[in-house]
Amino acid sequence: MSKEVKILVACGSGVATSTIAQEAVKEIVQNIGVKAKIVKGTIAEVPDKQKDVDLVLTTANYRQPLDKPQMSVFGLVSGVNRAATEKKLADLLKELSEA
Amino acid sequence: MGNRYLIIHGSAATKEEAIRMCGQALYHDGIVSKNFAQLCIDREQEFPTGLPTEIPTAIPHAKDEGIVESCICFLKLDKPVTFRRMDDDSQEIETDMIFNLAIKDPNEHLAALQNMMSFLNDPEALSKCNTLPEEELVKYLEKKIG
After folding, report:
1. Which of A29, B6, B25, B61 could make an SS bond with B101 (beta carbons 3.0 to 4.6 A apart)?
2. pTM
3. B111: Cβ–Cβ under 8 A, 6 or more apart, which residues?
């Protein structure tokens, strides 16, 4: 039985790009059949909110060290390198759900 | 419900000036609070919104409780200004096309936000922003983005 992956999707203001990214992540999660819970937040909230999740996805670059795995999903928002971002995220989600 | 669109033209020396022009136009039309431009400038400083797409653009925005209805203000500049990139703030883009987003409820406007990102990735659609007269451009944006 694979476990549920808790994901935080964060952007600068929590308004525009994280909303788009959250929807794109939902689609990927469904496509690969991984159980996941997605929450949205701002980048400022990442250091605190990471405690409650297994994976942190940011729409901008994030350079602070984190306890949890982190990945940029700018590609899902902007369309730049979208396919590569989707693949990388799908692999990471599978890995985390089987961990 | 669809977005409203404001189309403005002008010249700006910096991205801050460009954002202020959009914010003033939005405030003038009663769409945002008076400090919306400053909120966008502050956010841009910390989390830049320049997009390194085929035709680079920038999408400054901020959370503002004062937003009355969702609106996209398109600013076409005479000369490009520099924005730092959203995906890598050590890199920059130059753009003369700025889309200042005033979003009232992002979840309600998800489809429009998604359409807008496809729009910004479409050089042909973007080039219409340079060529269509204002009234037709508003109709075009309503059709393409919603």
Report:
1. B61
2. 0.90
3. B146
